[in-house]
Amino acid sequence: MSIAAVILAAGGSRRLGRPKQLEPWGDTNLLGHVVARTNEFPVEEVWVVVGHEADRILAETDLGEAGVVENPEWEEGIASSIRVGLDALTRLSRCDQALMVIGDQPAVPVEVVHELLASHARSDKPVSVPKYRYTSGNPVLVDRLLWPRLMSLEGDEGAGRLWQAHPEWSTKCGSLFFLRVRSTPREMSPT
Predict the structure, then answer these.
(1) What's residue 172's pLDDT?
(2) Helix (H, G, I), strand (E, B) or coil at 21
(3) Alpha-helix residue ranges (DSSP H) falling in 26-185
(4) Cβ burial 53-86 (10 Å sphere, 16+ → b, else e)
(5) CB distance 100 to 6 below 8 Å
(6) What is the mean pLDDT of residues 69-78?
(7) With a threshold of 0.85, does the pTM exceed it?
């Protein structure tokens, strides 16, 4: 099975008040760091979904060889980015699976992605979700056969409710780790 990572980074950063994708992060910015980290994952392709201030983000961020998809409906919320990203994969990629990566979670350990993929390979279910204690997390691995269902999502919620409504679709992968979403000025620190 081949895997494409889709980094969802189209949001407007309302709580921060400025594009968090461009916040300084080490020797790059937050999105540049997430793209570099994602390139370390065992995936064949990396795609980035941008929206709010897309031109500025593209001008100021090194995305390497990542494919870029612009989400004109970014104000709707994360569901629109999932739709746009998976639509691009459906049309432009031969990959069988999508690893959905959140653009404001810069600390995803490569080992966690390896464990997620190994767990998925042992499962007969089309979705694998990392779990920390009692909370589901990201990134999530989704087989192509469920992409049309994800592309029907609407609003500012990801697929979590879909996985809850259809537990037969997903495998929960151990107590892997906890990821902080970076949304406020206080949280915009690499530590």
Answers:
(1) 85
(2) helix
(3) 30-38, 54-60, 78-92, 110-122, 147-150, 160-165
(4) bbeebeeebebeebbebebeebebbbbbbbbbbb
(5) yes
(6) 95
(7) yes
Residue 77 gets the label, from left (phi > 0), alpha (psi -120 to 50) or beta, of: left
Q: CATH for 3-187, among 3.40.50.1010, 3.90.550.10, 3.40.800.10, 3.40.50.2000?
A: 3.90.550.10
Question: Is 19 a residue whose pLDDT tops 90?
Answer: no
- Which one-letter amino acid corresponds to residue 58? L
* Number of helices (H), then strands (E), in the chain: 6, 10
What confidence tens digit (pLDDT) does each residue in 97-154 have? 999 999 999 988 899 899 999 999 999 999 999 887 777 788 999 999 999 999 998 8
Q: Quick check: 5 and 177 in contact, CB under 8 A?
A: no
- Find, among 89, 113, 97, the residue nearest to 34 by Cα: 113
